[in-house]
Write a structure and sequence with these properties.
- The complex is a heterodimer.
- Chain A is mainly beta.
- In chain A, 0% of the residues lie in helices and 51% in strands.
- Chain A contains no helices and eleven strands.
- In chain A, a hairpin with a 3-residue loop joins strand 4 and strand 5.
- Chain B is mostly beta strands.
- In chain B, the strands form two sheets. In chain B, strands 2, 4, 5, 9, 10 and 11 form a six-stranded mixed beta sheet that branches.
- Chain B is globular, with a radius of gyration of 14 Å.
- Classes of the chains: A mainly beta, B mainly beta.
Chain lengths: 114, 115
């Protein structure tokens, strides 16, 4: 099983460029989420989705857009990259956090904005 | 807003020692709490998921406890080994006030086990 797959693993962007971080899971999980991890800040929730067509904001949503057209995919879009978005991004999925099922994480995307 | 705190931030112990990592959370109306391990430059690996109806969950040398009334969870590692060196994170979903779907992570405890 592939689990949660994130692409790319590394990316360097110039300020103002746009890009999409891809996340796909093959476990038929309803719940998917995006986090960013910064030194000393821990993981912070950016956006999450409880199913296809349903998304909501997390703790730090500004500068990021998401959509969920299928159960499998949950891309994260940066419309105009800023140096403050330099971080490691993780995608996670679970069947349903309310049903006491564990979360699975991708290996992360290390993004540098110069 | 759910807030999750982990103490200590870093811990260095000799091989073979038993140790306890602490996690506290502010919104105690949670359904579950999960402990993860993160190796440098890697993603998160789930270690234990403890449900709100449980007081303990065990996997091998790991034991997690949950006390909702005091807003605390502990991860006990028995007979530590150098391979246990990693950062350990706890994560709690929000409760009724925060929102159940929003999961909050602690900042982690960086563990070093010295051979």
């Amino acid at each position: 099983n592939a689990g949660v797959t994130q692409t790319p693993k590394f990316q360097v962007l110039k300020t103002g460029q746009s890009m999409t971080l891809q996340c796909a899971q093959d476990m038929n999980h309803e719940y998917m989420s995006w986090y960013r991890q910064d030194p000393g800040m821990g993981l912070r929730l950016i956006h999450y989705s409880v199913g296809a067509g349903i998304t909501d904001q997390g703790e730090v949503p500004n500068g990021y857009n998401v959509s969920r057209s299928t159960t499998e995919d949950f891309p994260l879009r940066l419309l105009s990259a800023a140096p403050s978005q330099t971080s490691v991004y993780f995608c996670a999925s679970s069947y349903d956090p309310l049903r006491n099922t564990e979360a699975f994480f991708g290996q992360g995307t290390r993004l540098t904005v110069v | 807003k759910q807030e999750v705190t982990q103490i200590p931030a870093a811990l260095s112990v000799p091989e073979g020692e038993n140790l306890v990592l602490n996690c506290s959370f502010t919104d105690s109306a949670i359904y579950n709490l999960q402990w993860f391990r993160q190796d440098p430059g890697k993603g998160l690996t789930s270690l234990l998921l403890i449900q709100s109806s449980q007081r303990e969950q065990t996997s091998g040398r790991l034991n997690a406890s949950l006390d909702k009334s005091s807003g605390r969870s502990t991860l006990y590692i028995a007979a530590s080994q150098p391979g246990d060196s990693a950062t350990y994170l706890c994560a709690a979903p929000g409760g009724r006030l925060t929102g159940y779907q929003k999961v909050t992570f602690g900042t982690g405890t960086k563990l070093q086990v010295i051979p």
